[in-house]
Amino acid sequence: MFGRREPAPGLMRRLDALARAAMPTVIAAVLMMLAAAPVGVPSGVPAVALPCVFFWSVFRPAAMPPPAVFGLGLLQDLLTFAPLGVGVFILLLVHGLALSWRRHLARQSFLVVWLAFSGFAAMAAGLGFALQALLGWVLPPIAPALHLLGLTMGIYPLLSFLLTRTHGAIRAAEEVA
Amino acid sequence: MIRLSIPLRQALSRLSLPVLIAVAFGTMLLGKADTLLVERSRMALADVLSPIYAALAEPVGAARDMMQEVRELIALRADNVALREENERLRRWQAAALALEGEVTLLRRQLSFTPDSEPSFRTARVVADGGGTYARAVLLAIGPHMQVRKGQVALDERGLAGRVTEIGSRSARVLLVTDINSRMPVTLEGSRARAIMAGNNTDRPRLQHWPEGVLPVEGERVITSSDQSQAFGGLPSGLPVGEVRWSASGAAEVELYARLDRLDLLRIFDFGLAGILPPEAVARPEPRRGR
């Protein structure tokens, strides 16, 4: 179509590219599974999933395609006792919104991004509460939702630090390749 | 990989988000419509993950033990005094208990009383917090040789913790009594009145539906109530649950003996076939229905 660009990539090269593309999703999935381990913090799983999806959607959307978000949401719903589909929907929504605002968000300082993320987390917690109430047809207590919100907002700086390092490593590897 | 033209590929990638959101709604409906499927996929995932959690529980447990040890060392002196006092008190109780036991044996011999069969139990390790934001549950690792059935009760070393709700081949989920979906028939030990203990996702489940004319007394012991109906899978009576506490808002609550925030081993009690079966249950073996 556009003439010869580069030779067909070898197996190792393709594996390398695949690993790089899959890494953000795998990291998120592993973190979620670790968060479900018995350390006495309930609602740790959604609090880990949301920052991961948000971070990659804003800073590297190619690393977090909608099907991956869907898979992470499904994993979240299966790991927690939540009604199936709620986590999927919330994560997809956050992904979509973050994607459409990423042009403004990606250039901002960490504090502004954190603030924006807190807004997202509040929306996610509210939506989760509403959907839980709707699907279970009982009004769930409000305290766990607030607990989840606080945990999500508080865990973001830590995860953001880790993910920024990962992002830098991926970019460095790309420049070499 | 199929080669697509660039506009088509762009259109596809733009479409994938709305389509997936629609699929998410579909999943919600599916989850409402077919709870069995959801339950099965949950347990399949739990089965896959439970060995990982079991391996992970070791270092976590070690760290927790170390913290506990440090705390205990700090409180050693005070503990010693308290323990000596308690020992003194328990010695008196032991004497009383021995005397009572003798008396009971004597009376039983006179009445030719047939005692209940001793409950048998198996112990399983808690490997994961199986609850979510709005649920209180734990995941147990069970060996392949362990016969665990739905509805069996789980106790920690102090008292009632929950009930087995879902079973996989290597794991089982125990719904804790504090969960909002949990309802347990209980007996107030002082008045022998029956009541229902309903979880509300807080540390103290509430008491409901006690009979007219009886009021739960602050500090009264609460024990499980025997219920032979299938819905409860033959809940044994007399297992310790907790003590009655009246909350500031005037609701009767149960302060549990079990320490649900730090469960590591649970005893799963098996009462299914040990007791005398009702006549209609003899013909067919123990049903293992989905719901």
UniProtKB/TrEMBL annotation, chain A:
One Gene Ontology term, aspect cellular component: plasma membrane
GO terms, biological process: regulation of cell shape
InterPro entries xrefs: Cell_shape_determining_MreD (IPR007227)
Top-rank lineage group of the source organism: Bacteria
UniProt subcellular location: Cell membrane
Transmembrane listed as a keyword: yes
Transmembrane segments: 21-41, 78-99, 111-139, 145-163
Membrane topology per record: Multi-pass membrane protein
Keywords annotated in UniProt: Cell membrane, Cell shape, Membrane, Transmembrane, Transmembrane helix
Family: Belongs to the MreD family.
Identification of the protein by name: Rod shape-determining protein MreD
Organism: Humitalea rosea
Automatic annotation (TrEMBL), chain B:
GO terms classed as biological process: regulation of cell shape
Pfam families: MreC
Keyword S-adenosyl-L-methionine: no
GO cellular component assignments: plasma membrane
Residue span, Rod shape-determining protein MreC beta-barrel core domain: 126-268
Family the UniProt entry places it in: Belongs to the MreC family.
Role this protein plays: Involved in formation and maintenance of cell shape.
Identification of the protein by name: Cell shape-determining protein MreC
Organism: Humitalea rosea
Lineage, uppermost ranks: Bacteria, Pseudomonadati, Pseudomonadota, Alphaproteobacteria, Acetobacterales
